[in-house]
Amino acid sequence: MGGRGRSRTQRKHFRQSRENVWKRTKSEDSANASSGDVIDNRNPSWEPFATQNPSFDEYYKEQGIVSAEEWDTFIECLRNPLPAAFRINSSSQFYKDIQMQLENDFMKSLQAEDTDGTEVEAIKPLPWYPDNLAWQSNFSRNQLRKNQNLERFHNFLKLENEIGNITRQEAVSMVPPLFLDVRPDHYILDMCAAPGSKTFQLLEMIYTLIEPGTLPSGMVIANDLDVQRCNLLIHQTKRMCTANLIVTNHEAQHFPSCHLPKNLGSIKEPGIRQLQFDRVLCDVPCSGDGTLRKAPDIWRKWNSGMGNGLHGLQIQIAMRGLALLKVGGRMVYSTCSMNPVENEAVVAEVLRRCGGTVELVDVSTELPQLARRPGLKTWKVRDKGLWLTSYKDVPKYRQSVATPGMFPSGKSYDLETDHETATEKKCEDSDGKSKNGPELMVDSVAPTSNLEAEVSDLPLERCMRIVPHDQNSGAFFIAVLHKLAPLPASAANQKKPTSSPEKTDSSIATPQDQTNEIKEDINGDDIVLSGEADVQISGTTPDVDSLDTGIDETHMDTDQNKINEQNGKEEIEPSPDVKTDAPTVPAKRKLQMQGRWRGVDPVIFYNDEAVVGRIMEFYGIKESLPFKGHLISRNSDKNHVKRIYYISNSVKEVLELNLLCGQQLKIASVGLKMFVSNYMFVSFAISLSVYDDVENKKILEELSIVKVKCVDTDDVFADLRLLKYIKK
Question: What is this structure's pTM?
Fold first, then answer.
């Protein structure tokens, strides 16, 4: 907590990743082969993670996540490594070729054996994903890396992932975007986006249905709290070469709503007056116990307080998402947790706060081949070693922690008496651990058979749960919400606190290693970030090309916005190029014409008519391509601009609105890098998906690097290495 200039919670760099129980080092293998001893002599105390936790078993047996008859199958599945999965980029011109290679080559050449020795399909398409674009292998990620017979297939996956033709992603992680019903004209917000697999999937969707040679009229804003994970997000999505993406760096629960006052005076109005979205993906921070198969270290850390501690934050993020959603729009709320306190309890509380303005959509007929189970209507809350069936059972001193919204009915009661002694309060922690020792112990609780649990009167059966043993996957929870009318004033007004957040009870488990953990694969390598950070982008946004993609493959679900203990104070200072004679606005609140986040490169429209005109003439860019007014730079010094980015019309409208609203959006990345100057050379890279010129396409298909004459100098090399993105 202390320390001037340091974040509230110390964090490790993302390269210092979590130990992986499924992975054995070469030194261990050689030592075992020579000595026959299964324990590394250099570290005799080392033991594999125990894939069991008595508290976990007791908690989920009591909640009734699966029936008693299924329990052994369910728990055995959780203890096995997760099969590798990947998705073909449907907007790639080569996706048909990749499908044919998988079907005609790898499906026949690869073989796998089931646990009983029988031969099974090595790879197969996921039956529930449209058009056979998602595939799953019966090999774990460790097998793909270590098995020499799979080397060709593994190299194929790495190469195609690197150039953007496929994305390696957990199967259940692909599900939430499918229920958003995305169209090319939609404005989409991904609230907790890093590391970006779902964002990439959303971009695929808006590009798939458009005419070749055109840009979608919609766009995606991908947000994440942590600056390093924003870099991972940029690194993941840059493979798409899109001009329809903005990456922002905000707390999801306080994502800004850019809107203009009614009277703008003499200021020219932008294309939109308020930043609202047709679709919102709300994949919130969670305890992540649905990822046990790929992050087995969760077994030893799991306790019931983890979900309780995140419940309030999850409600805040979901409510903010609904506030930013247009009337008639759709939001998907999802977690990779099995805990009903993080799932059904959050959805129920959101529905209660919104009144009749939001409905829970029944999507049981969509994706019929996806095995899913209905949401729960009854559950219990575990706190301080006690099972609580109603808020009236909550001890008085725990009422600020175990809130009414955690229970099925959501009812609050006037509690007058305390139900526990001071001794109990002192001795027990939220997961039943003694504060005097680190050992994991089973919670000691009274029998619950005589407790009658509340039953929710909301249609929570319309939610869906994906459990691991149904289709050999991870676990996931999904709820689809439809906004019918503007939210009630009490629900919509969720202001950012100006003072330090109230400390939650220390017994609620919010472990540092649980925070900011990556949910999805990036370039096939899973990345885990531990701890929290005081997020500020200093200087220029780091070049994502410098990121090492060979990062350790442990994988865990993210907790992007941990309870109000991050990001410090977001500071804004006036831009140095603000004109003092800017027109005043006759409105109640003063309209800041320009502002800039401290330490973040500004977004400047590049409007040098002479230079832009010479570029268009030199490269033969036709007037039919929206070019003028669609170029930006990230340098306020117009005489030293080294990079020029191209943006779509939808992104342009958002940026214009953001400028008029005082740059409320803290933008980490925007646009497609098109022109780069360096000394006396200019590198030109253009995505031909937005350049509809048949004659030039033929030339560029034959040449990879062309020596041409420069606009301003004698020599230049045009770097045309984006030919793989040419649209047919």
Answer: 0.74
